[in-house]
Design a protein that fits this description.
globular; EC 2.4.2.22; 194 residues; binds sodium ion; 8-stranded mixed beta sheet; Xanthine_PRibTrfase; Pur/Pyrimidine_PRTase; alpha/beta; PRTase-like; binds guanosine-5',3'-tetraphosphate; purine salvage
């Protein structure tokens, strides 16, 4: 998605070879016009897939997911992060290890908001090691619902998340695929020739 790539290049900050800061439009301040366009693009990509729910994870997944769910005319559900691993019979939960933060947390979705028969589009802002996506997939599968696909705003293609999800048989659609953050520069995966 050209407009997104342009925002990444012009307004993103390469913090290190592994971390891209996008606080100006996605992770702190939200560029509402850009996020609306991002959501519309997800809706366009998945419009034929019979999606019944969009599932993301708080907090940064919510903004780009909102317009996608709105355009697809389905509810948006976001998994909550829980600090204490309290027992709760009424949620689907999974553990997510963050390599970036070196912490394990639990994410959970109420059983009221996912059911067998749902075709779920999983969306998130970043795909790095794929731990968040895997946690969301586990929750969908605990609900005996179907993962129709995984949509990502910014994929760091040099980290293993995408390949692991594809190898596990999931469809992954990323709007921007970052090939490298070396030398303080963002380069993208070459898109297929038209
Ligand atoms: P993974 O889910 O793909 O394994 O990623 P990881 O654990 O490494 O990521 C932990 C958090 O850091 C996630 O946000 C993720 O979106 C974010 N993240 C990963 N790589 C980058 C990056 O290069 N730039 C930015 N800006 N964020 C990155 P989170 O903890 O779920 O927080 P929230 O922002 O959703 O509240
Ligand atoms: Na996120
Ligand atoms: Na994040």
């Amino acid at each position: 998605m050209e407009r997104l790539k342009q925002a990444i290049v012009e307004r993103g900050i390469v913090l290190s070879e592994h971390v891209l800061k996008v606080d100006t439009f996605l992770n702190h301040q939200i560029d509402t016009g850009l996020m609306a366009a991002v959501g519309e693009e997800f809706a366009r990509i998945f419009q034929q897939d019979g999606i019944t729910k969009v599932l993301t994870i708080e907090s940064s997944g919510i903004a780009p997911s909102f317009m996608a769910a709105s355009k697809l005319e389905v509810p948006l559900v976001f998994a909550r992060k829980r600090k204490s691993l309290t027992m709760d019979e009424h949620v689907y939960a999974s553990r997510v290890y963050s390599f970036t933060k070196r912490t394990e947390s639990e994410i959970a979705v109420s059983k009221d908001f996912l059911a067998s028969g749902d075709r779920v589009l999983i969306l998130d802002d970043f795909l790095a090691n794929g731990q968040a996506a895997k946690g969301l997939i586990e929750i969908v599968e605990k609900a005996e619902a179907v993962v129709a696909g995984v949509g990502i705003v910014i994929e760091k293609s040099f980290q293993p998340g995408r390949e692991q999800l594809i190898n596990s048989g999931y469809r992954v659609e990323s709007l921007a695929r970052v090939a490298s953050l070396e030398n303080g520069r963002v380069t993208f995966v070459e898109s297929e020739a038209p």
